[in-house]
Amino acid sequence: MNYKALAYDLRKDTLDIIMAGGGGHIGGDMSEMEILVALYLAGGMNVSPKNMDDPDRDRFILSKGHSVEAYYAVLAKAGFLDLEDVKKRFSKFGSPYIGHPNNKLNGIEMNSGSLGHGLPVSVGMALAGKMDERDYRVYVLLGDGELAEGSNWEAFESGAMYKLDNLCAIIDRNHLQISGNTEDVMAHENLKAKVEAFNWNVIDVEDANDLDQVTAALEQAKACKGKPTFIIANTVKGCGSPIMENKASWHHHLPNAEECEQIKKDLESRKEALENA
Amino acid sequence: MPNKIANKKVICEVLSEHARVDKDVVVLCSDSRGSASLTPFFEEFPKQSVEVGIAEQDLVGIAAGLAACGKKSFAVSPASFLSTRSYEQCKIDCAYSDTNVKLIGISGGVSYGALGMSHHSAQDIAAMSAIPNMRVYLPSDRFQTRKLVEALLQDDKCAYVRVGRNAVEDVYTEDDCPFEMDKATLVRDGSDVLLVACGEMVRPAVDAAELLEKDGVSAAVLDMYCVKPLDREAIVRQARKAKAVVSIEEHAPFGGLGSMVAQVVGEECPRTCVTMSLPDAPVITGTSREVFDYYGLNGEGIARRAKEALGK
């Protein structure tokens, strides 16, 4: 399976979900795609529709819950959800497919949406694994704007204190949030040094829209003992089409018909380039 | 001899008894193990104890993560901080995500007395009751606290429990503490006025009923330890027998027991309703007892308001 090319098919599914629902957080959906593919499809995590009742399964929390459309697309590809049903009902009256993760749906462990919740919860999940001497790992995906929430920094302390080497936090470092550049809204200068100072193992991934680099970082994290890992996954917001790449206005934007057409063409040509690589 | 055992101490005893046979019982504190009387638990069960430091958001988030992986989490922290500092974690990580977290608010109400409004929890009932899937309990004495915590250990839903800091006078006895989960306890029956109280206000309500009896007024006392789910049937059943209903609570005047009782009585069996509570203001400086006496939240004060409600 060419997972790199698949990531572009899943971007198309994501776009379809957003268009069908009449809105979505398209920028962050597109930036996080390779991270989700690495975890759910390319073997990063031990989780599948068959082992959701297994206490030893790996756990995942989408703390940046607004980027749920990409998550639905990946969960559908992994067999947890039915893509056609998602497309038909996303954001519609009475739908279970709401604009943030809903743990009544197969495959979703925790509800999220308000930022700054995922990291403390993941600390609790990892702690439970340590208490019960289980081998599962816990993954949590945060947005970079989200790091301004103080609750994260409480959890950086507790994650280190309890030496949770079964915990891996990943930040989708796309440098943009709704009001603009993260460094203008609330700067995260020296992020690597900051989190290292909390005694976490920090891995800087130069291009986390390159699946190989993400997969390598996840493997590196597994090898680290005695402390949790924080992966700074540098991504491009809106990755997949120049129309939306690196544009804060696409944080939550519904493409018009023309834009949608162009995005699909761009996604297809990138997919073809990866297939022929 | 007055009781010297605080409800929080009973909670520690019950949790310890269960932790001995169930390794999934875990207790979390936010630098609050001493004030929660949980030091013995932390010493006996270090592997089932989690200290998070002074970080209530982290406390509740971690408790929910543990619960999502099969633990029976008891997050114990002063009620003032637990109920509102970590309110969003209670709402999303516990109630909305449906995790088995028992939130134990210690030193609730005005227990901290002279420490002031920052340490008082007079909003917790309103805040917690407004969250779907959150239950709210205020046990009245040590015997009922034991039965409540034992019942909570048997289910896998989240709940908020508020207890006070100090030992309170008993309402029941070890051998006579009727308890049915989510059903109010009728402490005494009466036909003129219904007194509905929760937590530390139940005992003064019983005192008031005794005073009223001497004046020829028959008062029923309903111990509404289960504020949510509120035992509506018990309220209606007792209110129908009486001419007036008086609710008494250690809480702000809005959104607490009084509001809920008035709502039920108004809907089901309209009659005079009086709500007794703390004021909509920072409370006067003093011990719990001094504060209660000042605002008439004692036997004499409740009896007086009951007679006024009856036009006597």
Q: Could you please describe the fold and organization of this structure?
A:
- The complex is a heterodimer of chains A (277) and B (312).
- Chain A is an alpha/beta fold.
- Chain A has a single domain, classed as 3-Layer(aba) Sandwich (Rossmann fold), CATH 3.40.50.
- Chain A contains 10 helices and 7 strands.
- Chain A has helices at residues 3-21, 26-40, 68-77, 83-89, 118-131, 150-161, 182-185, 191-197, 211-223, 257-276; strands at 59-62, 138-143, 167-173, 176-177, 180-181, 201-205, 229-234.
- In chain A, the strands form 2 sheets. A 5-stranded parallel sheet of chain A has the order 1-2-3-7-6, with helices on both faces.
- In chain A, β6, α9 and β7 form a beta-alpha-beta unit.
- In chain A, α1 (3-21) runs antiparallel to α10, α2 (26-40) runs parallel beside α3 and α2 (26-40) crosses α9 (211-223).
- Chain A is globular.
- Chain B is of the alpha/beta class and 312 residues long.
- Chain B folds into 2 domains: 7-162, 3-Layer(aba) Sandwich (Rossmann fold); 185-309, Rossmann fold.
- Chain B has helices at residues 7-21, 39-44, 56-68, 79-84, 87-96, 124-129, 142-152, 202-214, 232-241, 257-268, 288-294, 299-309; strands at 25-29, 49-51, 72-78, 101-106, 135-137, 159-162, 185-188, 193-197, 219-223, 226-228, 244-248, 272-276.
- In chain B, the strands form 2 sheets. A 7-stranded mixed sheet of chain B has the order 2-1-3-4-6-5-10, with helices on both faces. Chain B has a 5-stranded mixed sheet with strand order 7-9-8-11-12, with helices on both faces.
- In chain B, β11, α10 and β12 form a beta-alpha-beta unit.
- Chain B is globular.
- Classes of the chains: A alpha/beta (277), B alpha/beta (312).
- Chain A binds chain B through residues 55, 59, 103, 109-114, 116-117, 119-129, 131-132, 150-151, 154-155, 157-158, and chain B through 23, 26, 47-48, 50, 52-53, 55, 57-58, 60-71, 73, 88-89, 92-93, 96-98.
Write the layout of secondary structure elements.
The complex is a heterodimer of chains A (277) and B (312).
Chain A: H1 3-21, H2 26-40, E1 59-62, H3 68-77, H4 83-89, H5 118-131, E2 138-143, H6 150-161, E3 167-173, E4 176-177, E5 180-181, H7 182-185, H8 191-197, E6 201-205, H9 211-223, E7 229-234, H10 257-276
Helix pairs in contact in A: 1-2, 1-3, 1-4, 1-10, 2-3, 2-9, 5-6
Chain B: H1 7-21, E1 25-29, H2 39-44, E2 49-51, H3 56-68, E3 72-78, H4 79-84, H5 87-96, E4 101-106, H6 124-129, E5 135-137, H7 142-152, E6 159-162, E7 185-188, E8 193-197, H8 202-214, E9 219-223, E10 226-228, H9 232-241, E11 244-248, H10 257-268, E12 272-276, H11 288-294, H12 299-309
Helix pairs in contact in B: 1-7, 3-5, 8-12, 9-10
